TrEMBL record:
Methyltransferase domain mapped to chain residues: 66-178, 249-343
Domain of life: Eukaryota
Organism field: Leiothrix lutea
Pfam families the record matches: Methyltransf_32 (PF13679)
InterPro entries named among the record's database cross-references: Methyltranfer_dom, METTL25, SAM-dependent_MTases_sf
Coiled coil: none
Stated name of the protein: MET25 protein
Length: 526
């Protein structure tokens, strides 16, 4: 109840007087408590039905634990959406070093364009792909072993066919958005598009059909060839070399030679059919006005994805999705809320600028503003703190005292320069201050060591206060994130061409704190 939660603050001074009530209120207004999110399992069930996804290489073979977790979960969802919509082209906005893009291409046979504004990231993605190709033989060998063991398990223990009916998105998933609909944000259409079922069936069975045409009968040797082909299908077209056909003088080929020739034929067909399913890293700065046709010459029906798109890029991804008819779906996980531009943060009028926040008309009409401090707080990770990964109090204290120094000694209250990760490179507070002043292009010769230490001693006893204050910011972080994410969801629900949109918790928030995806599918007629 709002009245109960308001008593956490003094009515006259507006100071916080009840920390426990404050924490309860913050929890009440978090996404997990509001019941707005759609469970990932429900989304996958509605999209995939009884269709099983491909088995293949795990991303932890060539990624760290955090990135592997993110890529594995998100790529399965993206592939399910692509299959549901009958599309084969994916555009990864803010692709970075191409972790998600390359895995979508290799594991799920999708044609992926990864677009990043940093040429160093794009070049890094190219180099990374070269290194991956060198290791494919090892991954391929492991894939064969996995396929053999899985085949044996299926033979020994055949599961009973499931009788569970697939939930449809329009019946099950839209119910979770009812609280938003009741507020008059938008009307969600009753039907869900059933794109390209013929194309989807072709995509799933194409290689299998080719294998049947070549081999004819299901001998054990042929079964082994198809298992090897299943591994080869996740590889890029130039990842492996063709087998060289050996010359046989015998009129009748031995069984081993027959199998080898069948494998050669199957691999050649697989490579030809997969030539279009590659990963292309591109360098370009994406804005709300970006014309994708100018960047991608063979643009076709596709979906947009973004794994931790920074600042305004997440908002612009949604705007491009709604504006371009060829983009049928979007799956976007944003981050770096502190870098969002806000329409009502400054008093200056900029009529032509496209802002990162707010997006929806409801908050625009309210003239809503978060402010940089609130957006900075939204980036904090409550779940990590809850499991003992405490905030870096000492580095925060160093930064706070530094700000006092540059204001009082140098008279600087604003700067476009950043201190960055100076704390980790510093041996002491004095070293930290001097390194920081150089980064800020301030003359440190006028500041003796004794003066620096005087500031440190003056505020040292208040370090506990700083820690307590930052813990309150951590508790409040999910509430601010809710506001930003719901703004994006409401924007989508205001659009007439959207069949379904929702928020989905994709990742373990301890591994990946920015764990919520904004997902939307367009109406079939669009």
């Amino acid at each position: 109840d709002d009245d109960i939660f308001s008593s956490a603050f003094c009515e006259n001074s507006e100071k916080l007087i009840n920390v426990h009530l404050f924490a309860l209120a913050a929890k009440y207004y978090s996404l997990s408590s509001l019941g707005i999110c759609t469970p990932l399992e429900d989304v996958l069930e509605a999209l995939k039905g009884d269709r099983e996804g491909p088995t293949g290489i795990k991303p932890d073979e060539f990624m760290n634990n955090k990135k592997s977790h993110e890529v594995q979960v998100m790529s399965e969802l993206v592939d399910s959406i692509a299959n549901y919509c009958g599309i084969k082209q994916v555009i990864d906005i803010g692709s970075g070093k191409g972790y998600l893009s390359s895995f979508l291409s290799m594991q799920y046979n999708l044609k992926v364009y990864g677009i990043d504004s940093s040429s160093s990231n794009t070049n890094g993605a190219h180099e990374r792909n070269k290194k991956l190709r060198k290791h494919w033989r090892a991954y391929q060998s492991r894939g064969r072993k996995n396929l053999k063991s899985q085949s044996l398990e299926k033979t020994n223990d055949r599961p009973v066919e499931s009788g569970i009916n697939c939930k449809t998105i329009n019946e099950e998933l839209l119910n979770n958005a009812s609280s938003l609909q009741n507020q008059g944000q938008a009307i969600v259409q009753d039907s869900v598009p059933s794109y390209g079922s013929t194309e989807m069936a072709t995509r799933e069975t194409n290689t299998e059909t080719e294998a049947g045409l070549v081999t004819g009968t299901q001998s054990p040797e042929t079964k082994l060839s198809e298992e090897v082909l299943a591994v080869l299908n996740v590889l890029p077209a130039d990842a492996v070399d063709d087998f060289s056909s050996s010359h046989c003088n015998c009129r009748e080929l031995c069984e081993e030679e027959k199998v080898q020739r069948k494998m050669t034929s199957l691999k050649t067909k697989a490579r030809k059919s997969n030539e279009s399913n590659l990963y292309f890293p591109l360098t370009s700065c994406i804005t709300a006005e970006t014309e994708l046709n100018d960047i991608i010459t063979d643009l076709e029906d596709c979906m947009l994805v973004g794994l931790h798109t920074c600042g305004d890029l997440a908002a612009n991804t949604l705007r491009i999705f709604t504006a371009k008819p060829e983009i049928k779906a979007v799956c976007s996980v944003g981050c770096c809320y502190h870098l969002l531009s806000e329409q009502f943060e400054n008093q200056e009028e900029c009529h032509d600028q496209v802002w990162g926040f707010p997006m929806c008309q409801y908050l625009k009409d309210k003239g809503w503003c978060c402010g940089r401090n609130a957006r900075m707080s939204a980036c904090l990770a409550l779940e990590r703190v809850a499991v003992g990964q405490m905030l870096p109090t000492e580095s925060l204290f160093y930064r706070a005292v530094l700000q006092v120094i540059i204001e009082e000694i140098y008279g600087v209250t604003k700067s476009d320069r950043h201190v960055g990760k100076t704390f980790s490179k510093s041996s002491s507070f004095i070293d930290y201050v001097r390194r920081s002043l150089k980064k800020l292009e301030l003359d440190d010769s006028k500041l003796p060591d004794s003066c620096i230490m005087d500031y440190y001693e003056k505020y040292k006893h208040r370090m506990n206060e700083l820690e307590a204050f930052n813990m309150l910011k951590v508790v409040l972080a999910p509430c601010i994130e809710v506001l930003i994410l719901l703004d994006r969801l409401c924007y989508l629900k205001e659009q007439e061409n959207i069949a379904w949109s929702g928020l989905v918790k994709l990742f373990d928030p301890v591994k990946s704190p920015r764990c919520y995806a904004v997902i939307a599918l367009k109406s079939q007629s669009c």
